[in-house]
Amino acid sequence: MVPAMQGDERERFLADTHVGVLGVTDPRGVRAPLLVPVWYRYEPGKEVVVQTGRASLKARLLKEAGRFSLCVQDETAPYRYVSVEGPVTSVADPMDAAEREAMAHRYLGAAEARDYLAGTRDQLIDDITFRMRPERWRSADFAAFAAEFAGADGPR
């Protein structure tokens, strides 16, 4: 069995910079859940923050479902992932400019963030912010699992 990360470790992992995959159910049940890559922010013990276009399918489904999940992973060995799921606790409309700036700086260098923010200024009008309180956590850390199979002769 693959070991799960402990509470502090999984929260630090989620707080690290990863592109997340947001999942939200279509409450009408007419299609599979929507899964899309997103930028997000998280600080241990706080809420997950995502932003999207007000008129997007993602925003509509988030409002209808009232909850979502987010999965983040390491894409290199040893693989690890954290998945959280919980209720939407607030929707900020219009988007908070400081939150948007913090998100850009999280994913881009200072110069790139400045250029990105200038080039996508309309998002301050068109986008909204969703906050989610993590209720359910899933995680795995394959490093410990892989070590079991390495043995005294080294990795196989």
TrEMBL record:
Pfam family, one: Pyridox_ox_2
GO-annotated molecular function: coenzyme F420 binding; oxidoreductase activity, acting on the CH-CH group of donors
Keyword presence, Iron: no
GO cellular component, one term: cytosol
SUPFAM superfamilies per the UniProt record, alphabetical: FMN-binding split barrel
UniProt superkingdom: Bacteria
Keyword annotations from UniProtKB, A to Z: Oxidoreductase
PANTHER family given in the database record: HEME OXYGENASE HI_0854-RELATED
Name this protein carries in UniProt: Pyridoxamine 5'-phosphate oxidase
